[in-house]
Amino acid sequence: MANHTISSPASTDDEIDLGKLFGVLIDAKWFIIGITLFFATIGIAVALLSTPIYKADALIQIEQKSSGGVSAMVGDMGDLFAAESSATTEIEIIKSRMILGDTVDKFNLTTIATPTYLPYVGKGLARINSTQDYISVPTFEVPRTAQGLEHHLVVTDADKGAFDLMIKDQTVLSGVVGQTIEKDGYRLKVSELVAQNKDEFSIVKISRLDAVNQLASKLTISERGTKTGIISLSIEGEFPERNQQVLNEVVQSYFLQNVRRNSAEAEQSLNFLEKHLPEIKVKLNGSEDVLNVFRQENESIDLNLEAQSTLKVMVALEAQLNELTFKESEISQKFTHDHPAYKSLLDKRKTLLQEKARLNRQVQKLPKTQREVLRMTRDVEVNQQIYIQLLNKVQELNIIKAGTVGNVRIIDSAQSYAVPIKPRKPLIVVLATLLGGMVAVAFVLVKTAFHRGVTSPDEIEQIGISVYASVPKSVQQLDIANKLKRKDNKSLRLLAEENPADLAIESLRGLRTSLHFAMMEAKNNVLMISGPAPSIGKTFVSTNFAAVAAKTGQKVLLIDADMRKGYLQQCFGLTADNGLSDFLSGKIDLDTVIKPTKVENLNIITRGQTPPNPSELLMHPRFAEFVEKVSHEYDLVIIDTPPILAVTDPSIVGTIAGTTLMVARFEQTTSKELEVARSRFEQSGVEVKGIILNAIEKKAASSYGYGYYNYAYKSE
Questions:
Q1: What is the DSSP letter of 142?
Q2: In terms of pLDDT, which residue wins out, 438 or 451?
Q3: Which listed residue, 79, 344, 349, 673, has the most CB atoms within 10 A of its CB?
């Protein structure tokens, strides 16, 4: 068995050859261009057919509340417990059902009516052709069981505006545009209808809650900047005018709600004061009556200067305590007792009560009569002061209530942009084109990474096998191969005959020269041509090389030893019967099995009838005797055999042949296949003299990579 020296290239397989990758892309340029154009076309179609989406936006400002109203009654403590709503809070209020519910009701957003088009493309085509249908449904009520179900409105007479409302292919009512129809729990009014006969519309009645949630999902609300109080609102939709109307309604609903909320504070305070005014009036009248009666019973009694001074202080003290009572009634609604504002108020009251207790002790030192007069006079003046104070507050609150404008200011009312924000057509086309290019390039590179077919003689020689010839791929041979598939083929179909100047034939002439010297050392003039796998061009090489050799004056015999699927007879316009299998079976003699051809000096032996045991026939001594005999009668005997990785026949024939060559196909046969095939031959004692690299193409890259091939080889 021969020893083979395998060369080790300096570069490893793991290194990336950028030049090779670039060459791969150049070789696949038309594929890449085609896929890129395909994706670009899809991108253009998507851009044209996608529904335009328009945007409307508005701008509002949350202003700091003025210190008027009830807050003014808190006095110098207002800064401690003034509660301002943050922008986040106001955004949630805008999204609430309280605000959005009014918009849903005004625009009847619980009714969703849309034209029915072909899936994906119908709506876009209708828009491009300006044939979009339109319907307006101001009233649509359904039974509870039908809520959320899709109804179909079918136009029966477009001229009269007649239609049928259907659900699950059943008509529930019929009507015309402009009329309100009621039947079986349904109530429907169509105010506008632009469509053709048999056009359909989808109508769904959803709950108010679902409509509010859908509207909230379409709204985008955010604060501009940080703590600016400027809130931006936007909405996106298919119809720009509708977007503007809906967003304006949302802004107005929020604005009016804010006004009502601010005026409600004054309203509550006003109700509180008006409730207590009669009580204070009664107390004032009662204290005045008591003082007058006491004066009449005790004649005229005047207070001294000290008592009058004490009286003024006590009246002022009571006024402050009453003021704190009003303050406490307000802050108790906003803060707990642990809040600093509430604690400050309680501390101030405690101080005033201590001062009041001190004054009471001082009053106890006065004579009884003056003490009683002082107490009664104090009650009258305190009640009178409280009553006047409350009257003033009532008047102030009435003015505040009438002039309340809220703390929301509409800076920009809703406006819709004339240019749609979606789809971004140029971007879609560019991205689709880039995606197509990347997909195509990735496919080519992945294919290259997983396909390791040999692409140069150097790759074969690296595994220790010589390359005897590199045969270019012939365009004319492809045409010949197609003609060979015809069952009625009766003519000679050899490239060497039809176009002797073809580059592939020139390469075979070079093989003839190289093989001449190689066979000088062989034990006989028998040449076996095999290969690792099917469809690599063994028969092409065998037939045309035989023709090339015959044209030099050599007497050549070409034998088709592929008794399963051989088609050598088709190349010469002959039939397969009376062939090798028939001879080895003893059915015919040697003179009958050898057939002449139209090529001078070239005879052939076809495969014969397909036998059940081709390998056994080849192993019979009669085959070896046959080869021995014809080798003396001919200058060159060429045996075309089946693939070695498919069947064992070539191993049998190789022991008889003096020279063995294998055919490898460019970009198809792998180095691994060649090594395994050589190993199979060596196990049978057959030395592979060299390789014929067939069907070489001119490529910018040196290889396309590794692939898997099925070695199944069944009889026809």
A1: -
A2: 438
A3: 673
Q: So what's the pLDDT on residue 321?
A: 77
How many other C-beta atoms lie within 10 A of the C-beta of residue 500?
Answer: 15
Q: b/e for 25-43, b at 16 or more Cβ within 10 A?
A: bebbeeebeebbeebbebb
Which stretches of 298-424 are DSSP H helices?
305-331, 340-363, 368-403
The set of residues, in sequence order, having a beta carbon less than 8 Å from that of 412 and lying 6+ positions away, is 57, 58, 59
pLDDT confidence of residue 83? 43
pLDDT score of 193 more than 90: yes
Are the CB atoms for 468 and 690 separated by under 8 Å? yes
Q: Give pLDDT tens digits for 95-125.
A: 999 999 999 999 999 999 999 988 888 888 8
Percent over 70 (pLDDT), the chain: 84
Q: How far apart are CA 220 and CA 57, in angstroms?
A: 9
What residues contact residue 590 under an 8 Å CB cut-off, 6+ apart?
Answer: 583, 626, 629, 630
Query: Residue 712 half-sphere exposure, CB side, CA atoms within 13 Å?
Result: 3
Count CB neighbours of 235 within 10 A.
22
Mean pLDDT of all residues belonging to the chain: 84
Look up residue 109 and give its amino acid: L
Higher-pLDDT residue of 83 and 155 is: 155
The angle at the Cα of 621, spanning 616 to 622, to the nearest 5 degrees, equals 95
- What average pLDDT score do residues 122-138 get? 85
Specify the higher pLDDT residue, 295 or 150.
Answer: 150
CB count, 10 Å around CB of 184? 9
Looking only at the bridges linking them, the beta strands covering 219-223 and 230-237 are: antiparallel
Identify the structural domains of the chain with CATH numbers, from first to last. Answer: 19-50+423-449 (no CATH), 111-205 (no CATH), 457-485+493-696 (3.40.50.300)
The helix or strand, by DSSP H or E, that contains position 260, with its residue range, turns out to be: helix 240-297
Angle at 402 between CA 400 and CA 404, to 5 degrees: 65
Burial of 289 (0-12, 13-18, 19+ CB in 10 A): exposed
CA distance 259 to 404: 7
Amino acid at 636: L
3-class SS string, 43-107? HHHHHHHCCCEEEEEEEEEECCCCCCHHHHHHHHHHHHHCCCCCHHHHHHHHCCHHHHHHHHHHC
Q: Which residues contact 601 (CB under 8 A, 6 or more apart)?
A: 550, 551, 553, 554, 555, 556
Helix axes 425-449, 18-27, angle to 10 degrees: 110
Contact between 601 and 550 under an 8 Å Cβ cutoff? The reply is: yes
From CA 636, how far away is CA 554, in angstroms rounded?
A: 7
> What count of Cα atoms within 13 Å lies in the side-chain half-sphere of residue 523?
11
Q: pLDDT category, 367, cuts 50, 70, 90?
A: low
Give the residue from 525, 485, 520, 507 showing the smallest Cα distance to 628: 525
Sign of CA dihedral 518, 522, 524, 530: negative
The whole-number pLDDT of residue 105 equals 94
